[in-house]
């Protein structure tokens, strides 16, 4: 999954980042001593990192996701608007090598009006309510594959294929990513329905 490559930041850098980010956060500010920040490079945004900012000592626990570089940052609100705005601002630089990472990033941090589309490249990417029988796990595992790059259109758009879970259904679809980072799904094909999965509310 996309969250596997984060590195933990030291207190001095946490304090510097929070001096900026706290000015744009609604509600209680993060305390540097109580806050953990995990950072990950984003290959399609030059000089920016994705930050997972969490304070589990507060009640209720606080967590925010921020796309950050010194003196400029965007707080993720799980809509596509801030991501699309940043794509124009930076601007985004997509290649055949990094477009799959962008698709993983996009669907991890954007929720649709009716729920999340969860990129599903392996059986463990499915948020099971309970472990499925080994035969079912094996059967579903054979349907899954890493995001596939298909080709690049004459207009610069990237065409990929991916498996996804939406609500309780597994399907595969074409994923078109424009050179400006705009994402669209098409040709959805249902693979399995009524999968016993947890509610898709974003709860990382």
Q: How would you describe this structure to a colleague?
A:
Helices cover 20% and strands 31% of the residues. With 204 residues, the protein is of the alpha+beta class. It has 2 domains: 2-76; 114-192, no CATH class. The protein has a 5-stranded antiparallel β-sheet with strand order 1-2-3-4-5, with helices on both faces. Strands 6, 7, 8, 9 and 10 form a 5-stranded antiparallel β-sheet that branches.
Write a brief caption for the model:
The protein has helices at residues 11-21, 81-89, 99-109, 134-143; strands at 7-8, 36-41, 49-55, 62-69, 72-75, 117-119, 148-152, 158-166, 169-177, 183-192.
Secondary structure topology:
Elements: E1 7-8, H1 11-21, E2 36-41, E3 49-55, E4 62-69, E5 72-75, H2 81-89, H3 99-109, E6 117-119, H4 134-143, E7 148-152, E8 158-166, E9 169-177, E10 183-192
Antiparallel strand pairs: 1-2, 2-3, 3-4, 4-5, 6-8, 7-8, 8-9, 9-10
What's the number of structural domains? 2
Structural class: alpha+beta
The count of strands amounts to 10
The largest pleated sheet is described as:
5 strands, antiparallel
Give me the strand/helix succession.
Answer: EHEEEEHHEHEEEE
Measured by DSSP, the beta-strand proportion falls in 25-35%
Uncertain residue ranges: none
Major β-sheet strand ordering: 1-2-3-4-5
Radius of gyration: 18 Å
Question: Residue share in helices?
Answer: 10-25%
> Between the first and last Cα atoms, what is the distance in angstroms?
12 Å
Counted by DSSP, the helix tally is 4
Mean pLDDT, rounded to whole units? Answer: 93
Shape: globular
């Amino acid at each position: 999954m996309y969250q596997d490559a984060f590195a933990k930041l030291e207190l001095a850098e946490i304090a510097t980042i929070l001096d900026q980010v706290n000015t744009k956060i609604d509600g209680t500010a993060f305390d540097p001593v109580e806050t953990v920040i995990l950072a990950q490079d984003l290959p399609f945004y030059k000089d920016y990192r994705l930050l997972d900012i969490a304070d589990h000592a507060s009640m209720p626990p606080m967590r925010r996701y921020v796309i950050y570089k010194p003196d400029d940052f965007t707080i993720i609100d799980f809509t596509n608007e801030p991501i699309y705005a940043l794509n124009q601002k930076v601007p985004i630089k997509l290649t055949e090598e990094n477009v799959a990472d962008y698709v993983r990033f996009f669907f991890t941090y954007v929720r649709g009006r009716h729920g999340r589309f969860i990129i599903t490249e392996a059986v463990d990417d499915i948020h099971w309510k309970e472990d499925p029988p080994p035969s079912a796990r094996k059967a579903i595992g054979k349907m899954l594959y890493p995001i596939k790059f298909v080709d690049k259109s004459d207009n610069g758009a990237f065409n990929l294929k991916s498996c996804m879970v939406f609500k309780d259904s597994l399907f595969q679809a074409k994923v078109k990513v424009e050179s400006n980072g705009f994402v669209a799904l098409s040709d959805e094909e249902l693979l399995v329905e009524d999968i016993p999965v947890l509610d898709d509310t974003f709860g990382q």
